Amino acid sequence: MFGNKLLNGKQLTEALGISSSYLYTLLKAGLPYHQLANSRKYYALDEVEEWIMQVGFVKKGG
Q1: 62/50 Cα distance (integer angstroms)
Q2: At what angle do helices 9-16 and 20-28 cross, to 10 degrees?
Q3: What DSSP state is assigned to residue 2?
Q4: In this model, does residue 13 exceed pLDDT 60?
């Protein structure tokens, strides 16, 4: 994980070209994230892209 670039939710939506509402859809489906106690969620871009390809999600409107 430490070799990956960590992004916050806004940065992730921009990197993937998706809307924030679609990000929540992905989270409900099991999108991997990292979080310290009482902090925001952070996402490893490589890990997220791999997960998306494994589960077969496609990009929906931005």
Answers
A1: 20
A2: 100
A3: T
A4: yes
- Residue identified by tokens 């969620």 is 41
Contact 34, 42 (CB under 8 A): yes
pLDDT at 62: 44
pTM given for the model: 0.81
Is the distance from CB of 41 to CB of 9 less than 8 angstroms?
yes
Q: Alpha-carbon distance 4 to 62, whole Å? A: 24
What does the block give as tokens for 23?
A: 């990000």
For residue range 23-54, list pLDDT tens digits in order. 999 999 999 999 988 889 999 999 999 999 99
**Domain residue ranges in the chain:** 6-55
CA distance 34 to 40: 9
